[in-house]
Amino acid sequence: MDWILFLIFLAGCGAAATTGAMFDPGEWYDRLDKPSWTPPKWLFPVAWTFLYLAMAAAAARVAGEIGSGYAMALYATQLAFNTLWTPVFFGLKRMAAGFVVLVCLWLSVAATMWSFWLIDSWAGLLFVPYLVWVTVAGALNFSVWQRNPQASAA
């Protein structure tokens, strides 16, 4: 793996991660009715640290390979949707729109995972936990939206 590429991709992931710091869930989210299977607050930064490291490592493995153009375009797409979700859900408090972003994120993560797998199986495997996490996040977003229709911004 090219460590310079890894650090560049990690910096991109770090930029995406800043939205989590900029748009704190706060009291609005704390007051929402959430399902019993909602992960504890401490798990989110731990999970995202691992996921961003895995994403950067996967991208660094694939980026220099011949024929990786579409895979890297999909990587950029999923990172854009990843970055977009937090400001939409927590910043704008638009749970329905957040769910739409999460569906797009899930599709782009799945496509990235598959395209990475075709080039480098380890890179594809590094995306599996991310797809699982986004699946849970999508289910959580949907559940919270359905349980709290009055709490979403107009």
Quickly describe the structure.
The chain has 154 residues and is an all-alpha fold. It has helices spanning 3-22, 26-31, 43-63, 69-91, 95-119, 121-126, 128-147.
Describe the structure.
With 154 residues, the chain is mainly α. The protein has helices at 3-22, 26-31, 43-63, 69-91, 95-119, 121-126, 128-147. Helix 1 (3-22) packs antiparallel against helix 3, helix 1 packs parallel to helix 4 and helix 4 packs antiparallel against helix 5 (95-119). The radius of gyration is 16 Å and the shape is elongated. It starts with a helix and ends in a 7-residue tail after the last helix. The mean pLDDT is 94.
Termini Cα gap: 47 Å
One letter per element, helices H and strands E, the order comes to HHHHHHH
Beta-strand percentage range: under 5%
Secondary structure tally, helices = 7
The residue ranges in which pLDDT falls below 50 over 5 or more consecutive positions are none
What's the story with the biggest beta sheet? none
Judging from the principal axes of the Cα atoms, what is the shape? elongated
Helix content: over 70%
Map the helices and strands.
Blueprint: H1 3-22, H2 26-31, H3 43-63, H4 69-91, H5 95-119, H6 121-126, H7 128-147
Give a quick set of tags describing it.
mainly alpha; 154 residues; 7 helices; single chain
